[in-house]
Design goal:
Elements lengths: L8 E6 L2 H12 L2 E6 L2 E5 L6 E6 L21 E4 L3 H11 L2 E2 L8 E5 L5 E5 L4
Parallel strand pairs: 1-4, 5-8
Antiparallel strand pairs: 2-3, 3-4, 6-7, 7-8
């Protein structure tokens, strides 16, 4: 039997933890719970799993979509929005870049300032 376990956070590596955290603060509207030079933790207003950022020396951004020999993403974030166009406009205003490859009509892949892919998605009409 497994002892009780709970995922308390997700950590994204970045060339600058504070800069990437600032992007996600604007994007999600979450607040900083912890703020150190190389480590920042954001928490959602209603509680739950947080999002942290760690400065990594020699950081290499992932390539989306990756090809042979490319740096692959380790994970991506799925972010539900009610209005995909409005969510995409907000993400762009916060500093995200729309990825060139879009795999689905009800999903938009964006890249954060450190190159991590994240998906905005909505329920199909």
């Amino acid at each position: 039997m497994s002892p009780p376990m709970e995922i308390s956070g997700v950590v994204l590596g970045a060339p600058d933890a504070r800069s990437l955290a600032a992007f996600y603060e604007r994007l999600l509207g979450w607040r900083r719970e912890q703020d150190e030079p190389d480590w920042v933790r954001l928490v959602p207003p209603g509680g739950g799993t947080g999002l942290s950022f760690q400065t990594e020396a020699g950081y290499e951004p992932p390539v989306w979509p990756h090809g042979p020999g490319d740096q692959q993403m380790m994970l991506h974030l799925d972010i539900h929005v009610d209005d995909l166009a409005a969510g995409c406009a907000h993400a762009a205003a916060c500093g995200a870049t729309l990825a060139g490859f879009q795999p689905q009509a009800d999903v938009r892949v964006h890249l954060d300032p450190a190159g991590h892919p994240f998906c905005l998605w909505t329920e199909p009409a």
